[in-house]
Design brief:
This protein is mainly beta and 160 residues long. The chain is built from two helices and seven strands, in the order ββββαβββα. Strands 1, 2, 3, 4, 5, 6 and 7 form a seven-stranded mixed sheet that branches. The N terminus and C terminus are likely disordered.
Length: 160
Amino acid sequence: MTAGAPDASGAYPPYPRVAVGAVVFHENRVLLVKRGKPPAKGVWAIPGGTVHLGESLQEAARREILEETGIFIEAKDPVYIFDKVERDAQGCVRFHYVIIDLWAEYLGGTLRPGDDAEDACWAAPEDLTRLALSDQTRQLLGQQFDFEHRIPAPGGVEST
């Protein structure tokens, strides 16, 4: 595949693609998905996906979270923005996403992995130590929501 000729997976795009994620908490747990496709296949992250032409960020987040997890949300304001750039062995850009994570309110639904999610879960702070989280997800949950600092230390005492 050559640069500038994207394939069906979104690889080798001619320009960066815009994507959204939704940060959803419910009962002191955060909604995560295990990515089922590149980039980041097999890694746990905030659920989301590509914004379609004509969709608002909030509309895209609602659609993507429902497709990937079966959960209904009300998407709010952006809370975290980052680039995801992956290069191939020749140095060509294989993937380039500008990802905007939105705060979202949980409305309901039955959790199940769908679309391009290999798995989905409601993760408690202590679960983060055993999950292969993306660096961006770990940073977002720690810095923006102080979530990782609520992980119980050995012996069941919460760290601060």
